[in-house]
Design brief:
The protein is mainly alpha-helical and about 80 residues long. Helix content is about 75%, strand content about 10%. It is built from 3 helices and 2 strands. A two-stranded antiparallel sheet has the order 1-2. A hairpin with a 2-residue loop joins β1 and β2. It is elongated. Keywords: Membrane, Transmembrane, Transmembrane helix.
Length: about 80
């Protein structure tokens, strides 16, 4: 799997996670982990973080594809 495809897959996964947290926040779904109720505020923060990670992954997908040899040359300079 090349880097572009991996970034695309990561973007899709984080988008889905972000949408689920937003849905939980809007609909007020209850979340209980180990008997402790997780507040809606946690989902709001998780929505923002997952949304940013999805945005970053898609932004990297649009970037210029660099071959490993070109990358190595940049590092050596």
């Amino acid at each position: 799997m090349n880097q572009k495809a991996l970034n695309w897959a990561v973007g899709i996964i984080f988008s889905l996670i972000s949408i689920l947290h937003l849905t939980r926040s809007i609909l007020g779904w209850e979340a209980v982990i180990g008997g402790v109720e997780i507040s809606i505020g946690v989902s709001v923060v998780a929505f923002l973080i997952a949304g940013f990670l999805a945005y970053s992954a898609f932004k990297l997908t649009r970037g210029k594809e660099v071959s490993p040899s070109e990358d190595k040359e940049k590092i050596m300079q």
